[in-house]
Amino acid sequence: MEYLVGAGLGLAVGAFATVVGFDRGRAFYPVVLVVIASYYDLFAVLGGSMPALGIETLGLVAFAAVAVLGFRTNLWWVVAALAAHGIQDLFHASLVDNPGVPPWWPAFCMTFDLAAAAWLAARLIRGRRVSSPGHGVFAAALAAGALFGTSASAAPPASVAQADGHAVAYQVQGQGRPVLVLISGLGDGMASFRDVAPDLAAHATVILYDRAGYGGSGAPAGPRDAAAVARELEALLAASGVPGPYILAGHSIGGLYAEYFAAHHPDAVAGLILEESRPAGFTARCRAAGLSMCVATPAMMTFAPKGAQAEVAALEATVAQVDALAPATGKPVLVLSRAPGPKPFDSLWTQAQSDLAARYPGALHRTAPAGGHYVHRDQRAWFVGEVTAFLATVR
């Protein structure tokens, strides 16, 4: 669907600009190029990742420079840059670990870019343009609005429950046993799992939700430590009407929340899936190793969702709460981690994932063949296969 929408919108914007005469101005497509390139910076801010923001800004500067070159000299430069950005979209996830990028965005943006490049190329070949600036900037703003409207479009309709004093948006997909609860990472709502949830729902009932301060859920009130997240989840599961026991699948910080919930509600939890889960002691180990960027700071989360800001502020409390618990025993556990990387941080993270699996005797530890922190995005088919195989073993 993302491919069709992207291609359709790219052609529709081009056709509209041609019909009304907006693209007679040289500024139209160069500004569209800059707008398109800026979205990855926006996603880096939303994801609260300063390293990603730095890398994405370098890309934005490069594409903006080509846009200026095309505007001043030859618009074929813009055709090439739009096509190049589309190719970059295809490989973006393997180049930059940007947690704010919606799962569907690269496919959508790639086809939009290529469609826009093709339309502009056709216009140049036919020679039907003039050199006056015209209404290019205004029309580019129109294209930006169309892109933003698509990127901000809501996920499929969600139900709303009252949990721990606020509204919580959630979805239930599939039916029957087992029941899989997906807990997203820092800065992410349930949209993070949107691409894999339907595949998993073919094998289980899947519950996904927005924690307080994310997506369609209400604003957080009070500290957002593991205890608060557990209270929210307990109330949500009761309100959903889907009986347990549940298999909790937590990504990143969501793994900490899953561990805490399982330890406090052993009868309600049938198993754990920890995807790139942040081990309770990782921050201390990272700092002891003299590494930087061991933990997100409140300053880094300035533009992140309110829920993410509150969770970062309470991260020390969350870590202490999980670290103080005896892990849930006698339950199947699956640890999924990314492929090892070349940097010291990567080596420490890889070892921490092995130690996390060792925390749960008998746990299965599987390492993705490639990709980064978002295994369920970068290695979607592999992730679904490992999870569904694990679900089949849980009774």
TrEMBL record:
Keywords: Hydrolase, Membrane, Transmembrane, Transmembrane helix. GO terms for molecular function: hydrolase activity. Residues 178-279 form the AB hydrolase-1 domain. It holds the Pfam family Abhydrolase_1. The chain crosses the membrane at residues 27-46, 58-84, 104-125, 137-155. InterPro entries: AB_hydrolase_1, AB_hydrolase_fold, AB_hydrolase_sf. The keyword Heme does not apply. The keyword Transcription does not apply. Coiled coil: none annotated. This is Alpha/beta fold hydrolase. It comes from Phenylobacterium ferrooxidans. The lineage of its organism: Bacteria, Pseudomonadati, Pseudomonadota, Alphaproteobacteria, Caulobacterales.
